[in-house]
Amino acid sequence: MKAFECPHCGAQMTYDIAKKVMSCAYCGSEIRREEYQEYLDKNRLYTTNELVCPQCGAAVLSYDDTISSFCSYCGSPVAFTKRIVEDSKPDGIIPFAVTKEEASEKYRKKLKDTGFAPRWLLEGGGTEKLIGLYIPYYVFDASASGHGKSKGENRTTSGNSTIVREYEMEYDLDASYSGTRFDAAEAFPDCMSESVDTFDPEKAQDFETSYLAGFYADGGNVSETVYADVVEQLVVNDIRGRTYKHDGISFKASTVTPEVEIRSKKILFPVWLHTYRKGDRISYAAINGQNGDVAAEIPADKGRYLKYSLIVAAVLASILNLFLTIPPTPFLIVSEIILLLFGCSLRKLTGDVYVRENHLDDLGKIGAENLSRAASPDGAATGSAKTSPLSFRVPASVRLKGWWRTLVGLAVVAAVLLSGTVIDSVFYGAAAFNIVLALWSVFDLLKEQRLLASRDVPIFTMKRGGDGNA
Amino acid sequence: MRKLSSRALTVAALIAVLVLLAPFALDLYRAKKNERINAETAGTDASAVTLLDGADLLSDEEEAALRGTMTPVTAFYPVAFVSTDDAEGLTAYLYAESAFYQLYRDGEGILFLIDMDNRYLYLYTSDSNTALSKAKCDSITDNVYRYASVGDYARCARETFSQVYQVMAGIRIPQPMKHASNALIALCAALFCMFVAAISATAIKSPRKVYQLDKNSEKTVNLSNVSATLTRTYRYSNSSSSGGGGGGGRSGGGGHGGGHGF
Question: What are the distances in angstroms from CA A116 to CA A202, A316, A350, A366?
């Protein structure tokens, strides 16, 4: 957001002492101060403090003089730079209903309930690192209309046979969607904002600055146009994916291309944000400030995971020993199935990590215009081909990362079966080799899970207006 | 509180390791206990022992020694040793079944076959013999096939009937590979299930689920001015082919068994 932006070009305006007018150095506009104040009031602007973290560049708003010594986005203890800015008033706000202590308690309970949370995360979950933050969300309404043609079908049963009647359908379509929302904060990852979004927007109040007292607000520097394309795609996909019925005829509108009109309003949602930094990685936990729901990134502790696994394995083995005697050949095949299972899981997880690390699922961070560039394997812009956040392209090298063990195991199984040997030790040895590969995969799975449950310390290059003088 | 549960978790994990290793220790204990033929329960009916060494695998001395090992089993069932180098186009299982039928018709018995034609061992018994299950037959032939692989057919047969007697007398035979394979399968299943639990516990939306229409959002889709023009009509029959008449089961008495190649 800019302080005192020019209504013509959006650049920074300053007060010309000599002329006693507001002057824009970029476009040369001059506006009387009283008229400019009317403009500010009409455009629902309010004055607040902007606090910028010198480490990561994240900026939050604080209406009063409260300044935290801790940046909740990069987890660093910092001295914020502060300046006064004008920001546009949001269309609504959901006030905090959950206290800091309640939020902390819910977070700690969540950590304990998972059973896999590491000690360092549990010990670092105190209230001192919880920040009350209003996150701006765009709440989108969409209306769609169009004309379509499709093939329809009616099936009836007569005795032992089924009669199928095919139709050419033609129709007008009219749709409305409301309430889909995405956050307007570049610094707050989209996956976190969507995970903690169990808000009830019916409880939103008209915005008043007094709600911000004692809390921070993210200024929301992401334009709604970034998400507008996504909303349009989602609306079109939903229209095309439905099955419609008319006079007993079923059909889909799979070829219709409706005209979609998008409207949005900005509402502040309350979130208690907890950040834990370990080395170059940070983990976020967001507690819904309205209802206390927790969305937390929790890396699994390797020791606890292995101990729980041993306990479950002992129970399972005792049960299997009661009735199962598996001959060598089926055991070899079972070992390959196990390897396949781990390989599929690793493939999916490495793909998710790739998407997360490259921010392909964070439109707010990279913006729609940069999405194509980021998603292209060679990093080049893909021109008119628009990469959608609804379908990620993960490079083959990443997808194969989890598969090589499965392929090696498959080769071993094939070699043993084709050799025609009857020696049990060959079968058991090959199966044990596959099981060792599967166990090796487990450590990779844990490593990927820890990557997915944390992220690199962020650096934000947020747009700032004016000369930044506080 | 957490310190206590962490300790309890470690103790439980150690107990779990002991539970996993217990079957192996038990097998070792049984093997070292030197459980041998109990003279009080051993049979003595030599007339119930049949030796048909069609493939001429055994010398006279070996046949006599084998009879000595087979006789105790007669306390439970008549026993037979059969070897052949011409299975007449049958599988080892079918040959064993046929030989069993020729010897015992629909009666009870235990037959061990060394099939030199198919290079297969087969242990066959009547269905009434629930102590010597198919799994046990497989385990026994798993344990003895190595002797046949190196040409020591006499020892292969002696070990087979020795283990058959132990099973019939309720003496547990070691099954190390069963315990090892079950333990490994259980460990892999546990690791996978716990991994799924760990992933589920992190309640962050996976990348592919971040951009979706809010499930509580209002959605209304209406169609108007709908027209339908019939383009084609066709019909197909729903009747499924009835199953063929049930095939008759094989004639002859029921039996089961297990085997291993060599």
Answer: 36, 21, 20, 32
pLDDT at B32: 65
Burial class (CB in 10 A: 0-12, 13-18, 19+), A178: middle
A–B: how many Cβ contacts below 8 A? 284
Write phi, then psi, for B115 (nearest 5 degrees).
Answer: -100, 100
State the Cα–Cα distance between residues B141 and B30, nearest whole angstrom: 19
What token pair was written down for A12? 């920074």
Cα of first residue to Cα of last residue in chain A, in angstroms, is: 15
Closest by CA to A117, choosing from A312, A304, A311, A310, is A304
Average pLDDT of A336-357?
Answer: 91
For residue B120, give Cα distances in angstroms to A203, B85, B99, B116, B124. 78, 11, 15, 7, 13
The pLDDT, as a whole number, for residue A10 is 77
d(C-alpha B206, C-alpha A348), whole Å: 10
Chain A 101-130, residues with CB within 8 Å of chain B CB atoms: 110, 112-116, 119, 122
Return the percentage of chain B with pLDDT > 90, whole number. 50
Q: What are the angstrom distances between the C-alpha of A300 and each of A437, A443, B12?
A: 21, 11, 19
Q: With left for phi above 0 and alpha for psi between -120 and 50, is residue A44 left, alpha or beta? A: left
Quote the pLDDT of residue B185. Answer: 92
* SS3 assignment for A123-135: HCCCHHHEEEEEE
Task: With CB atoms and an 8 Å threshold, state whether B178 touches A119.
Answer: no
Predicted TM-score of the model (pTM): 0.74
List A93's β-bridge partners, or say none: A205, A268
The burial of B129, by beta-carbon neighbours within 10 Å (0-12 exposed, 13-18 middle, 19 or more buried), is given as buried
Alpha helices for B33-173 (secondary structure H) = 60-70, 92-104, 134-149, 153-168
Q: How far is the first Cα of chain B from the last one, in angstroms, to the nearest whole number?
A: 59
pLDDT tens digits, B214-251: 877 889 999 999 999 999 999 988 765 544 433 334 44
- % of chain A beyond a pLDDT of 90: 38
Chain A residue closest to B201 (CA)? A114
Which chain A residue's Cα is nearest to B2? A112
Nearest-neighbour CA in chain A from B55: distance (Å): 21
